[in-house]
Structures
1.
Amino acid sequence: MLLPLLGCILIAVIPSDQVLRVKQAALGTTLLVAISAVLAWFKFDSANTAFQFVQSTPWIPTFGISYAVGVDGLSLVLILMSVLLAPIVVLAGWNESEGGRWSAKVFYILILVLETMMIGVFAATDVFLFYVFFEAMLIPVYFLIGGYGSGERAAAAVKFLLYSLFGGLLMLASIIGLYVISGANGGHTFDITKLSDMHNYMSSTTQNLLFLGFFIAFAIKAPVWPLHTWLPDAAASATPGTSVLLLGVLDKVGTFGMIRFCLALFPDASKTFTPIILVLAIVSILYGAFLAIGARDIKRLIAYTSISHFGFITMGIFAMTTQGHSGATLYMFNHGFSTAALFLVAGWMISRRGSSTIADFGGLQRVTPVMAWSFFIAGMSSLALPGLSSFVSEFLVLVGTYTRYPVAAIIATFGIVLAALYILIPVQKALHGPTTPGNENLPDLNIREKVAIAPVIAVIVGLGFYPAPLLNVINPASAHVIESQGFTDPVPSESAGK
Amino acid sequence: MQFIAPVLNYAQLAPILIVLAGALIGVLIEAFAPRASRHNAQLFITVGSLVASFASLMRVRTQSSVDAAMGSVAFDGAGVLLQASILILALLSVFLIADQENFTALPAAVPGSEEERQSLQLDLRVTEVFPLTLFAVAGMMLFPVSTDLITLFVALEVLSLPLYLMAGLSRRRRLMSQESALKYFLLGAFSSAFFLFGAAYLYGYSGTITFSGIQASVVGGSGNDVFLLLGIAFISVGLLFKVGAVPFHAWSPDVYQGAPTAITGFMAAATKVAAFGAILRIFYVSFANAEWSWKPVFVVIAIITMVFGSVVAITQRDVKRMLAYSSIAHAGFLLAGVIALSKSGLNSTIFYLFAYGIATLGAFAVVTLIRDSAGEVTDLNRWSGLGKRSPLIASVFALFLLAFAGIPLTSGFIGKFSIFSAAYESGSTAILISGVLSSAIAAFFYIRVIVLMFFKDPVEDGTSVVIPSGLTTITIAVTSAVTLILGVFPAPLIDFIESYAFFIR
């Protein structure tokens, strides 16, 4: 797992004046990283719930900080998703860097720095290291949005950064709290495995406060209602490729953090807050869905659907059942790809039409069939049509939640109904119906774009039919988390009527 | 009365003495050397004596004794660290001062007078600034190692008086510069008076002026507590004035703005190290056992300072004033380390002082480069689009701002983390929470400047980035490299501080 280093070294090689070279190098790097991650997946022993491919070197020994990385089932899946999306984003957004404030070179350097940090943030097994990646990641994203986006890009970038920094600082306070507690109980450390015993030494008030510090940071990132307001602006202003990384990968850091840190470090506090968080998750699901129905801008629409989807993921996490967890983890992976597909196709539609208003499209099915079909499949995946990947995960989340919190699951099911509305209405408006004047001569996807979207669609369809390879990795990890929480899966009773 | 010949440990005092000797040679050069050769000679002497002082300090760094000068000066690890920091910061400042564009040609001339016009035409240079700097540095080096109140006061004055003069040397906006110098002097004189008043009370309380004697009285509890409280209170006023803590901060925005930028950088970086060094020593040594009496007040002052500095900085339109308020906020963070009153508090404060000093100096060095035909441009609105005009300079400035904001992978983050964890470890939850919140507020205005530089289009009004002189380039390169290195590989310095940071007395 030399991936983070690999990325870094290759970035150093990149600088050059030739734009095409830069692009090729960026694509090559991301592909290489993706291939090595897939190889790691094959070598990964899914039966083992401990961290694998562990590397550890002391970084700041005085504070007990070390550069420690390793993966378990959960982080492997997310790393896999990130590195697979990266080359697709580079390829799909071949011309995205144009019209930016700075050169293409800077754009790809930022993308690669971001990729390095994404891998780092998922692989870190040292809380301090995680925090460093978590915060440092903001800077490339900030410049990607502010430098290459459209519309009110500077304002959106600042909003994004301030929200995230605020959350990050709360988390820093909690990390300091943990650090001090660990110092009083066996020596300063940031090792996540050692820290997960610390809750035995905390009063419940302390634990609740520290939990909140972490949770608020992750809830801003995820984003959970009511901390979501930065997301639509950021997603609407960023380039499609950046949006994919933002929603597809960065926001997963929030939900990932909830599992890895909130649950593992503060089991008791997690239980205390579960009801409140479930309510927030359900509000997110419904609120995101309603906003999506009302959205006129296609990028905002996708952002709102993501808020709804993150509601599902959060619910799955805090349902505290193995199915819920597996579902949530799989959901993260799937959401990455379905959002990627939606954003990329939407980006192509926008760049062709020069408008991002849904009403401006119409009849694309006839004019540009391949593009329309891609959008359609992505949309269907987003509403969790059986046979597409999201269905499996959404079903698992709902079942997992139902066994413990039936009411929550039932309310959340309405979210699915709403999803049908918010996807089908734009699909109908944009793809079918009479061709809107001005759309007659739009070109269909070119070869490069087809190559970029094909693997995404393949993943969406493939995992819909056969999710086992991923679930095999995820399930033991989920079971381990639930077990360490002191939960056992409730046996579904007769009345549960599965 | 019998006169006892003082026994001095010259090896341990050498660093201070070398700087003083350099200053005196500088005065002689000023008096006797021909005008044309003064600048280079002064620069040579100044740099030479700072380097020699640093070398002699490193030679004796492992020693420690309470008897460097008859019990008035302590020589210990913490003192070495603080003196070394001051020397490094001073050396980098001198590189900035050497760029004479910013200094008036003839300080004595009345602003706007014929005399001033002539002096500018003749291209005169204020070479006096070099010995003044050295005197200030000597005072700063003595300040954190003094172990009795009289020496402390002498050091305070030695470091302050040159600074009062130096603040008035700006070439542009002479009146403002002189006003700031006068303001600094008057308020500084007040705070010195408070300091002396406090020293008198402490003498009344313990019957001695040495820190260890005061500490013995505090432990013994024999004296009158009212005297102790009044003494601590007045001494604190004098010291907190120097670091610019609220409510003794009023001078700093005006002085930061009015003084020549190179001097502002020197003041902001080195003075802070010296003053916090003295605060650390006196509170860790003398008043540690009287914690009940000052700690609650300091907690309140620290919190107010952080919050006030961060909030007011948001409204600033001038980059130097903004940095002044940001330095007030940082004084609040540093006070958190003082309050911790522990080994880790000491370590983290020293680390933070060094990291912050370096970043501050770098930031002011960048400010000196942004100019138009009338001198430096400090109006933030005219900085917009700097990223387009000069990406490198803008990126470096952004790096310093991110360090101030405490973003990971910069020195500021490590400093912030260590200082807050030390404060929390000592039980100050309130400090931790308000520190984190004011960091969030502070992040807002640092980021606003970054937005301005990178995401706004340049205004065409003659603002330009001048090509830095060789020495300024060194300062900027060194400060930005150190800021980055301390963010990524802080372990060596942290370990070094860990093994050295102790107070012998």
2.
Amino acid sequence: MKKIRELAVEDLEFHPPLDAAQFTTTDDIEDLDGAVGQPRAVAAIELGVGMVEDGYNIFAFGLPGTGKESLIREYLSKTATSRPSPSDLCYVHNFEDQHRPRLLALPSGTGAEFRHTMAQLVEELLTALRTALDSEEYHTRQQVINDEFKERPDRDLRAIADRAKAEGLALLRTPVGLAFAPLREGEVISGEDFEQLPKEEQERLKERMNAYQDEVQRTLRQIPKLNRERRERLRDLMREVTSLAVGHLMDETRKKYEQLPHVVEYLEAVRTDVIENAKDLAEPEQSGLSALLGEGAGRPDSTSMLKRFQVNLLVDHAETDGAPIVHEDNPTYDNLIGRIEHLAQLGALVTDFTLIKAGALHRANGGYLMLEAHKLLGNTFAWEGLKRALQSHRLRIESLGQALSLVSSVTLEPEPMALQVQVILTGSPMLYYLLCQHDPDFEELFKVGADFDDRMDRTEDNLRHYVQLVAKLVREKSLMPLDGSGIGRLTEHSARIAGDRRKLTLQIATIVDVLREANYLASQDGTTIVTEAHVDRAIQGRVYRADRLRDRFQEEIGRGRIMIDTTSAVVGQVNGISVISFGNFAFGHPSRITARVRLGQGNVVDIEREVELGGPIHSKGVLILGAYLGARYSPDKPLSLAASLVFEQTYAGVEGDSASLAELIALISAIADVPIRQSLAVTGSVNQRGQVQAVGGVTEKIEGFFDICRQRGLTGAEGVLLPTANVENLVLRREVRDAIAQGRFHIYPVDEVDQAIELLTNQEAGERSIKDGPYPAGTVNALVEARLASLAQVRKDFNVPAPAPGPAPVAKDEA
Amino acid sequence: MTTRPPEAIRRITVALDASASSLAALEAALDLAAQWGAEVEGVFVEDINLLRWASLPFAVEVGHVSGEFRKSTRPDVERQLQALADRARGHLRHAADRRRVRASFRTVQGNVVKALRAALGETDVVAIGRGERPRTGRSGLGSTARALAGGRRGLVFVISQRVRLASPVALLFNDSAAGSRALTIALGVARRSAQPLAIIIAGASADLPQELLDRAEHEAVELRPYHVRQDSPSRVAALAHGISAGILVVSAEQFSPDEIEEVASAFAGALLLVGEPES
């Protein structure tokens, strides 16, 4: 058995130590260039950002607060400035199909100017149109055409009427038409008088009336054709006049954009539309309800027609330096893909291209889009929409209703945008692995996984970089500088969060919070430098705000309502230590573990498991104990005991195997009938060979038992046994370390069960001198072996078959 | 029948046929009646010539819009005329109620022109729409309006579709008895509509007669004299148009029937013709 070596306070120091002599405050420390402790994630990001091929989007995963976003943003910022700014994007009216607005890409930063140019052009066009259409020349020529066409049928009818009158016939206007009637003395002849006329005369009049009716019919039937001709002539006149009026204005604008063929094409469409609709455009603007209900309702008014020449500047990169980096913190489907808004007009929802709104993908096109994975996945169809856009390399704005074919109302189908964007998702490892496993598209679209570590080795280089990082954070957040003592306390806390004296946490967000709170306390003190005292108070404050439940536990133990013995020695009873986590705060507290044994068939009953309060790992630990006992103490006999183990006074679940060493010791004590020192607490798991294995939460466990002992008064006998493998995990509070230095509290690292037996029983555990030989008499192991042998014998005796019925057997001896 | 001096307008007869033109005349007549406190009578004339034509066994009409032949009978035409009369009656009632003007409506059968000429003897003013541009000839006036205006009898109010009475009143000055009556009417209209009276004086420039000035002062009407070299219909109409006059008052004896028609064609406002009083 290895010799037991109690930990000295020197064993609990940090390695390497912080050399605070190299600086006075963080102001003396240069900024860190690059990332700290994330070589794997950095390599992944560099690859992802550098690759331009499809699918090299990045999923950065790690614990919250590990600086994923800030690191990625830093890398992207460096890369983005060296890349060109993407085009500005505008939606404009499609004069061929108003339901499919056109997308115009303009050189970066020129979209607003184009919008202004178009607004000015339209204003000037209107002035020119109104001037041209108000001109004397236009009105005169228009009048000439109107007169020419209107007079023709009037003239023809008058000529007919004159000729008919000469033949004794009148052309009458009936309420709904024209008719001929014979006249007598200027009046229409009556039926009776007509009958008095000679037959020949009657026939002649009828014939002439028929002839004139035919002529009138021909004349009337010409009217629609003449109207068409008249309208065509008026249209030609208007085209001629308006072409001249708007020509030079359009030519000037066209020249300005002659390098952009698609803009020139659009301007030509504008020119054609203006000329074709000049009359309506030149109408005075209507407003409000009058536009809808007033004269001319049903045809587009000039206000709505003018809207067609507006430019909807969807994405403006005037302020963008290099490639855009967009972070969308509310990645709904609409916020990602864009949306088409509607206005309510007289109970109907209407829309047009000016109501198209950009999504984050529009703004990030040609650059980078950062999203938080859990928000993305939590928004209905946002993930599907993003994948569809990335797979098709096109961004089509369509409402969810359209995308899912749920609505079929008339809406817009804006021209899709070619998509060239790199998406960077940030999230937890769990999300990353779930997506890898369950989404077949995920690995195709996010080929780069950037794995962010939550801690790093406390090497000299890393420690130096860490201090540089703290100095940078202090400056970035405009905090007061820290002196060496403050940095020292901060790195100590960093190791505690990491759960290892040889590590430093990379959960930067927590460190920043401590820095901010220490800064606040320092400002309250009226100082200009943050010291160890401020950092310590900040840390203690965080603990105090979270430890109400720990206080309640300790109070219950102090009042004896939860029974914990720290002074006597008791058979079958050990102080185990549990850890309870609430949110981001964890604390340890002792739990009484007891064992009872009796004759049985080798079963070790885990009472927690029986009542379904024990988790599977805990049950596994207990089952190992049975195997260990049988193999070590009763290899050639049936293990003939029935043992029961229980965590006393626990009313919630128990999980983990960190109490299996304590449970084993309780069992051994119960079997051997050897009392256990209650001044010591035990944590650690054991395997079937009796080796003690590392467990979690040792710092909190030790501090938890220390708090109870200190409450009762340290006598120098108190301490904790823990696996040797856990020693480096210990980052104990200053007061615990002070008690150890003063010999008032002890920590015993153990590697095997026998070391724990000797510490806890103050008796030799005992080793077999030869293989399969007996344990030395009087040792604990010998007592255990003897008790188990005894139980086996008793069990064997119980197993002697009962005598068969009939004459009593005759004893041989007697015979 | 009594002689009725036209110094006051107490009764206005409007010729109604439910056309847009006659409805415009109705509106203007009601406005005038409201100014003068007069009553309005709507007259719908069932044209006897139309009824006679419809009684002929071979009566056929050519549809205005369709250009198709349709046989027609007297009952058909009577129903159509009845419908027009009903519409005209309805318009009169609503428009008069709006202005709180006392109004009546009657239908007469006969020759339209004769019927309205007969009405001139029973009323102070006969109001008539200028008429649709007729298919049967090129004229600024419909046939009925032309016939009435050319009659030089009574007061005939010829109204275009968009006349605004709240505009200056123009008078073609004529130093005669008829001219004096025209002046009286013009002053009355100007005073009641609180508008200035534009006096158009033809020929060599001359001062306005003191009597005229006194009457204007007495009526509290602002006079604005305008001079034209000749009293040609087109110049008078152009001047009235130029000063944005709503009503042009002319004594009928100043122009021949053709000239009156020329004035009516060129002037977009209402023409008030002051003829010989009916006796």
3.
Amino acid sequence: MAPVIRELEVAVREKAFAGPDGAPRIVLRDVDFRMRLDEFVAIVGPSGAGKTTLLKIIAGLDTAFAGAVRFTGTAGAAPPIGFVFQEPRLLPWRSVFENIALVLPRHADRSAVTRLLGEVGLADFADALPPRLSLGMARRVALARALAVAPDLLLMDEPFVSLDRPTAERLRVLLLTLWRARPCGVLFVTHDLREAVALADRILLFSAAPGRLVADVAVPLPRDRRADPAAVDAVCAAIAPLQGRAAVS
Amino acid sequence: MRAASFLLFLAIWEIAARWAGARNLPTIEAVAAALLDELARGELLHQLGVTLGRVLAAFIIAMALGSAFGLAMARWRALDLLFDGWVVLLLNLPALVIAVLAYVWFGLTDAAAIGAVAVNKLPLVAMTMREGGRSLAGELAEMATVFHLGRWRRFRHVVAPQLAPFLLVATRSGLSLIWKIVLVVELLGRSDGVGFKLQLYFQLFDVPHILAYALAFAAIVQAIEWGLLQPLERRIGRWRR
């Protein structure tokens, strides 16, 4: 069956927070884009560009903004959304298994949890408590939890930062494997252009605060060549100036 | 080591009793005799039961109302501003004043006694639970919202485990306060309970019986601490280790 929901449509006119002095501080301005819900899109921008805020807006966690977030192809209802936060945000007092089972519907088949744990390589850690896990393992659990809701849209907020390079690389490979097995839209926030090029179909470049969308680039590199560092470097070199130019103007 | 500590206590008692004379500090034997006497007449268990019933009732009322107030104050700023002064006032009001006023206004009844004890403990619970409510992690709340956890699941898996340590502190401090106050309240206006018996034997200057009741009461407090509170504490803190 073809997925009913086809697209995410984001049109944020403005998003502001109250600054320390009470004056509003604008973090996002005129962010407009659409993405199909089988596309892998990366958002790249400097810190403070409102990337996390944008994800929260899309997830419905933050509704105090001017603009609209719409899903087309549905009767206006938001589809299931999986969220992988920058910190894993697991419940430290519940086992790995329970952390994932928690987000399933009440009468759902709990064997799905075991299957997911197997897929992220944590079959032996179902009964472990999160404080016992390494950061890399905790992030696998967070990923499994987000996938447990069978999302149409997977929001990921720098999910692989502060990991050592091989661990981050393994997680990227794992993410792509899982994504191919269950096509959904992925919106992946990162400040690392190389990571974006290695993963995404499309890259949205954000300016420094207030965050604006300065470029929307399709990654011109076939997926079977993403493992080649030289090819990735070349693409980065081609894309990076787009952001620099915008920052200057 | 606990056993040694207990034996040391008994030894010091026995020596002090011989030195001070039986009238002021009776020997262990005399107190044990008084204890057995009260136990045989069924008096001891009855009075302990009455007092424990009041402790339990006051505890439940104070925990329920105090938690509700405290969490509401943590949640809504307006309520916090409204009740903060009251809580502090109540916290600093001497237990005796509350007990006397309760008896004057509501008569020498069990309800007044239990109410007075509960009101004494309530502000302590409210303040502790307000701290707990304020310390709830916003990150976990966002997680619960994003994944559409229902009310019950959110409470049981996300909120309650965060509040549990505060609830335990409130239980601890609350119980130790109630133990002390309940006897005073009984002494003032009830005709049964451990507090009443202590007053009775005080008027008769019957020190062995006073000590017999005091020790039996202390033993129960200790039993609750070891049998209930400490296992509970270990259970709640399990995930930290």
